[in-house]
Structure formats: C-alpha cells, structure tokens
Amino acid sequence: MALIYCPECKKQISDKAEACPHCGLPRAYFAYHQEQAVAVVDKGDKTPVSDYKTIRNMLIAFDRDYTQIFNRARYIPTSEARAFYKSYSYYLDVLKDPAVKQYIANMPNAVGFDIEQSNRFIARLDDFFEQVDRFNEQFIEQKLEEYKEYFDSILTAVDPNVRLDEEQLRAVLTDDDYCLLVAGAGAGKTTTMAAKVKYLVDKVGINSEDIIVISYTNKAINELIERINTKLNIPVKICTFHSFGYEILKKTNEVPPSVNYRSYSIIFNFLEKKVFNNQRLLKNLVRFLGYYFDLPEDAFCFTSGENRSSGRF
Prior knowledge:
Blueprint: E1 3-5, E2 12-14, E3 39-40, E4 46-47, H1 49-70, H2 78-96, H3 98-106, H4 108-111, H5 115-126, H6 128-146, H7 148-152, H8 166-173, H9 189-204, E5 212-215, H10 218-231, E6 237-240, H11 241-252, H12 263-275, H13 279-290, H14 305-310
Parallel strand pairs: 5-6
Antiparallel strand pairs: 1-2, 3-4
C-alpha cells in the first residue's frame, strides 16, 4: 500500500481506497496511478512523483498571477488578496517540509524546478499580505498627488468652499470590501460619503445603479439625497436601513409585511408587567445588558420599585 494525495482535498490517502475518506472523491477521479505513486525522500516520507509536476506548474502560474495582482492601477481589496492567498496556501506547507526541500535541492532536474524557485515562492507568500498593505499605501499616496486638482473641486457643485482633508481623501481612495469611518458629529462623514460616491463613478467606473447609500436617519438620508442625487446629479439609490430591509422583505414575501409602530410600547409593557416585579428575571436582564453598557456598581442596591423609579436603577 502506498500513500497518495487526493486531488480534491489534498490530503494523504491510501492508493487502495475506493473513495477519499476525507472528502468522498471516488477512486475513478484520482489523478495518480499506482505505478507512479511514491518517491521516497529523506526521513522515510513519501511524496507523489506527480505532485512535483503539479508544483512546477503551480510555481509558473504563481509567478504570473503574483505579477498581475501587483501590476495594476487599482486598490487591492481584502477579498481578492485572501482569494489569491488561499489558492496557493496549500503548497506553502508542502514546500516548507524539510524532506521535500531536501529532495528538491538534490533532484532539481527530476522535479523540474530548483530550490531557489521554491524559496522565492515561500518568501513571497509569507510576505504577501504585508506586500498588499505596502502596495495599497503607495497607491493612495500616488492618487493623492495624481488627483489633487480633481479632489480640490470634487464637491464644488455641493459647496464651492468644501475641501476634503487628508483623512477624508484616504477614506475616499480606500476601495476595500469594508471601510469603517469613525468620526464625531459634524466631522464630515456625510460629505465624505458623497465624495466617495462621485469618485467611484468618475474614476473607478462603477455604474451608479450598482451603488446603494444607506444611513440610519431620515435627516441624514435627506442630506445625502440633496448632495448626491440633486447637486452632484448621480442617480444612486439612497435609503435608510429600515426602508432597505422592508423593500427586501416585500420582494421576498407574497404578503407585504406590516409595520407595528407600537413596538416600543409593547416591549415597555412587557418589561413593566413581567420583569420589573420578578427579582430573578430583573437581575438576569441587568447582567445581560451589563455586557453592552457601563452600569453603576449599585445597580442591584434597591429594595423596592420606588428606588428604580427614582433613578437608582
């Protein structure tokens, strides 16, 4: 019996197995034949001969893809970076194996590549995410300079006196899957969102129909509609989280859901009648909320409902 690698899940299995015990791939799909099953290397390890052919082709593809991902004029989003890394990470552990490294060093002609190619692959993939961060930082610095005049007038139609600061510009240029913008009231979050929408349409080439702007309050939505839809003349969809969710529910249900505007009263009545007069439930509720709020140390220091209503609770 020899060990071979399942071509689907890449785990070692017996060459006599009728199917892979890990992923269930039938024997008929095994890529390796028994007569070429193993090559004995140091420490008694066994590595499929055809694996080295696969690795050689992988190294060629990796060099090509690695060059392509960093030879671009766009920000590299996290999802793309992770997908690239995942597609090659299996071979990272394989080529780091001391026995495999020794075999490659001793038999470069047999495997079709040398140890320098293997080590270059390992070094590049180990440093991949740091390289992505460096690339994205250089991209932002380059675009800050290249688009200086564009950014100086990006919101002229909204307000000729508006100028985005560097933090706002970096938020606009950061084209990642998820971007968290943290700032206090009046710091310019709505302005930054309007500028980002215009940048995505003007410079990244995103169709306005593929953009949805969502906020929490009707006040913020009205400001965004005025700035983006009206003054910048970009017809993106702008709505609150509630209306967006309600629209999805309407599309996925034959009967449109009804909105209960008395929900707060229902919850309050339930708490007042079922919880506040039950010591055990009340303590459990306070402990639960304690995970999310800073509760005073004397939260449980009360003897009657009067203490709670007076503000000690």
